[in-house]
Design goal:
By secondary structure, this protein is an all-alpha fold. It is built from 14 helices and no strands. The relative contact order is 0.18.
Length: 322
Amino acid sequence: MLELPRRLSYFHPVTHATWSRLLANFIMIGTFVLLGILFRRLKAFPAETAQVLNMFALYVSLPAVILLKVPSLTLTSQNAIAAVVPWCMLLLSAVIIQLLAKPCGWTRQTTGALMLIVPIGNTSFMGVPMVNAFFGAAGIPHLILYDQIGTMLIFATYGSIILSIYTGESTRIKTIALRALLFPPTTALLAGLLLRGWPYPQALTTALESLAGALTPLVMTAIGYQMTLRLRRTTLSPLSTGLAIKLLIAPLVALLGCRLLGFNSLAADIAIFEAGMPPMVTASALAAAAGLGVELSIALAGLGIILAFASLPLLYTLIHYF
């Protein structure tokens, strides 16, 4: 009888209960998106509703999530790959977009939206339930490294640079550095690192959990509020290209690169899996708020989440076959 490779020892079979949890998660997402669509049709909600929801999520709920997760971060030589892959995926995505922008005739706003949204994955909200379902609890520490040292730092630093460049604001190093440092998620990350080893009071933990729990309802309702079922033709090309890069090209390159370099650990497999997560909802909301192709920005996050429920199981299968 053939012996399975040792790296498959953590193989987490996807049971009926697992699929039930994933379906429940999908239904929850869909419910808030539909509520957003409904609210848009009600005159009781002002036109700025989506922006208000997005900014509250960005300035309050997301920092609360980070403050809760940071204390569990531990970086070793064995799991460092989980912190390196997201930066490699950032470089890959940005280069592809820049190479395609001129031949495809994308506007500056379209290119800016793709540059901000495509390289940054939904590695926390979408990542946690997916990794837990497919790999089990053992994969969560590696996910946290990918999300905090990779995704969140990229969002705070690279995201600030892209916003400065494509919104016509000052691009001085001092301005970008100050913006990145004062960006609420970055501030929360630094605060969490400084407070490591100091347990939060129970009252503070409860408050943070309440604020963090509001993240999903806020951002998904905002997406629904801004979502349109009819996309312009000019949106279809950059939309399909951006999703192809995020859901297909990036994870396949990550898989090929890790295997060629001999990385077969759980940390490497989590990094590959996280590389295939759909675009980050908050990055999409930020791009829309900045006026970088609102229709495209919202569609990248909304449609990306839907397609990920098909692409991630396929990616998981590829990871264990190669």
